[in-house]
Amino acid sequence: MPKIVIAIDGYSSCGKSTTAKAVAARLGYGYIDTGAMYRAVSLFFFQEHVALTSQKEVTQALEKIHIAFKYNARTGKNETCLNGLNVEEEIRKMYISNIVSEVSAIPEVRWAMVAQQQKMGRRRGLVMDGRDIGTKVFPDAEVKVFMTADTYTRARRRQQELLAKGELVNLEEIIQNLEKRDLIDTTRAESPLVQAPDAELLDTSHMTIEEQVDWVIELADRKMAELYRTRMKVKNAE
């Protein structure tokens, strides 16, 4: 079967990353967590006290950033490394969530990350999730999914994730954070969060992760079968 790119976009805490990882594992595909890349940049900017309004400081800082994903055999997961250091746990903390949308809205940051993401996906056979994968990074992705869920459900999920890591955060604070991020993500000038015209909408408000994964897998299977049939027709015609 032909290998494809699966682009999963949508709002935060809809289950994008968890679903994308599971889909990649089921298909034997690579997985790129683009949200982790922007979180890593945010962490570096925070640690280095980079002024987000200074184009010069932002550009200079980006030149010092190297992001990689390394497989952890113990956890069975790819973990984010920033300049050689594992930052997977740190970038998931609330203080990074509070600044990541502002950092992501900076054009120079998006240009740098998009270039890296496109390089990663040249060979296809990839699942990538984020905010602009189907519209900006891979507008030619064979499968595009746009995920959403109601704000309360998203907040509860985020609260449980943080609690599992020992971070107790008030639900109202998380709701305010999500609403702020939604506003920034959907109104930024550079690559705003929008549903691609050819993306399939998936509302995960009342779905389990397993149901979400099955839904995307079914979509991918149909597309690969369609591409296979098309290629066979062309081959037979030759």
Can you tell me about this structure?
By secondary structure, the protein is an alpha/beta fold. The chain is 51% helix and 16% strand. Strands 2-6-1-7-8 form a 5-stranded parallel β-sheet. Strands 3-4-5 form a 3-stranded antiparallel β-sheet, with helices on one face. 36% of the residues are buried. The mean pLDDT is 94.
Shape: globular
Enumerate the strands of the largest sheet in spatial order, edge to edge or round the barrel: 2-6-1-7-8
Largest sheet: 5 strands, parallel
Give the overall pLDDT as a whole number.
94
Structural class: alpha/beta
User: How many beta strands in the DSSP annotation?
Assistant: 8
Q: What is the terminal-to-terminal distance?
A: 20 Å
Low-confidence stretches: none
Order of helices and strands: EHEHHEEEHHHEHEHHEH
Helix content: 40-55%
Kindly provide the radius of gyration, computed on alpha-carbon positions and rounded to a whole number of angstroms.
18 Å
* Number of helices, counting only DSSP H or I runs of 4 residues or more: 10
Residues in β-strands, percent: 15-25%
